[in-house]
Write a structure and sequence with these properties.
- By secondary structure, the chain is mainly alpha-helical.
- It is 78% helix and 0% strand.
- The protein has 16 helices and no strands.
- The protein starts with 24 loop residues before the first helix and ends in a 6-residue tail after the last helix.
- 48% of the residues are buried.
Length: 445
């Protein structure tokens, strides 16, 4: 399959003027492949949480090293997202997708037999190696997935990505309880081996149904895209919302158990409110973003500020002098999930629109670079969020940590808002000058 040309007819207000087209068999198969990758990757990524720290402690690994083992995934994902995005045309999008799943499945199985390794440095080294290789596989498959989806659904990318977030949220929600349940029944090895085998079994399916996606290498580069101020600001939005999501992982359970005396099972149910709000709102917001592209900027701005408000009330912030209540905490988690969807879903199609307007050629090469940048900044936030959150939680408390974390999307959202105001003022001034030129008489007396 060659990369489809991006054709997007809009009315004078920027709304979609095209009749909805029936999806082809090739598009449906692409959607199934991406959904299988999202779900399987996220469920494998999230099964470590409930029991790996305890097992690592038995092998002589302290909490700081465990945190670094978790963190190295984001670091390698960040680096290789950029590399894979740059060379996606040379490697081949379909091959990159399938090879990434193969590496992830094998690494998941290997992680399940690491408990057989000797305690101490050897076990720690093998954990870093396998986890890093898993990150490279995930970077390959996710970058290829974003690029193939953008090429296959040029006019519906936000709708498609929003729908696929259901499978992402489902994988992240089911991973910890499934992993914990299998661990209780069968021990350390079975959760990894079983889920890794499921990923490997999906590879023949994707090899058969995923169409080829060829293209021409882009003459642009990561740095050329980052020199565009609007792209840089939207990348910072990606970073801020990713760091907010990742901030919640190491801090919520500690806060709820200490503040409200909840059991670990009840904490898991609290997490569901956040995940479900994000997963259920994403398809609707994706559809809205595609139908009315001109409101994408406002969705991102409102989403950024709403995240800041919800984090301000999570604790709540000490200077508000509001007593912390469990119902308020859960309500703000739901608002946070909705706000992350509101802010995050329009970013990818908006970045693609921006780089095309700046003259970058349309095709798989450019889409690969955009996908790599998107993945890299998401991973950067995934690394900074829990690192900063854990540090602030230890030095201050959850209330102040959440307040400071919420300030990040507020600052970057405000900067993006200022940019949009300057851009609109410039366009208004430019259109005014053009009108003045048209009114000048052709012949002066």
């Amino acid at each position: 399959m060659t990369t489809p040309e991006v054709t997007d007819s809009r009315d004078q207000n920027g709304n979609s003027s095209e009749e909805p087209e029936k999806w082809t068999k090739s598009q449906i198969f692409t959607l199934i492949s991406a959904a299988s990758m999202n779900f399987s990757s996220m469920i494998c990524y999230s099964i470590l949480g409930p029991f790996f720290p305890k097992e690592a402690e038995k092998k002589g690994v302290n909490a700081s090293i465990v945190g670094m083992i978790f963190g190295c995934f984001s670091v390698f994902n960040l680096i290789f997202s950029l590399i894979m995005g740059k060379y996606i045309v040379q490697i081949g999008a379909k091959f990159m997708f399938v090879a990434g799943m193969l590496v992830s499945g094998c690494c998941t199985i290997l992680f399940g037999i690491l408990n057989l390794a000797p305690d101490g440095p050897i076990f720690i080294s093998l954990c870093f190696i396998v986890r890093s290789a898993d990150a490279i596989g995930f970077a390959a498959s996710s970058t290829a997935s974003f690029s193939i989806l953008a090429a296959t659904f040029p006019n519906n990318i936000a709708t498609v990505m929003g729908s696929l977030e259901i499978f992402t949220g489902l994988g992240l929600s089911l991973g910890p309880p499934i992993g914990g349940y299998l661990y209780q029944l069968f021990g350390y090895q079975i959760p990894f081996i079983l889920l890794g085998c499921i990923v490997l079994l999906m590879i023949p399916l994707n090899m058969c149904i995923l169409p080829r996606c060829d293209g021409v290498a882009s003459s642009g580069s990561f740095w050329q895209l980052m020199l565009i101020p609007k792209v840089t600001l939207m990348c910072l939005i990606i970073f801020s919302i990713s760091s907010c999501i990742a901030f919640l992982d190491p801090t919520i359970s500690l806060f709820l158990i200490e503040k409200f005396k909840l059991t670990p099972g009840s904490v898991g149910l609290v997490f569901l409110g956040h995940a479900l709000a994000y997963a259920l709102s994403s398809p609707f917001l994706g559809l809205l973003s595609d139908k009315i592209p001109r409101i994408r900027k406002w969705l991102m701005l409102v989403g950024s500020w709403l995240i800041a408000v919800s984090f301000l009330l999570l604790g709540p912030a000490p200077f508000l002098h509001i007593k912390g209540q469990l119902w308020l905490f859960i309500s703000m988690l739901v608002v946070t999930g909705f706000s992350l969807s509101l802010c995050g879903i329009p970013v990818f199609p908006e970045v693609i629109t921006c780089v095309y307007e700046r003259g970058f050629e349309k095709g798989l090469g450019t889409l690969g670079i955009v996908s790599g940048i998107f993945g890299a900044f998401w991973c950067l936030g995934s690394f900074v969020g829990p690192t900063l959150g854990g540090f602030l939680y230890d030095k201050l408390n959850f209330e102040w940590a959440a307040t400071i974390q919420g300030g990040i999307p507020f600052v970057f959202g405000t900067l993006l808002g200022v940019y949009y105001m300057v851009e609109m003022a410039h366009k208004r001034s430019h259109s005014g000058n053009s009108l003045e030129e048209e009114r000048k008489p052709l012949i002066t007396s």
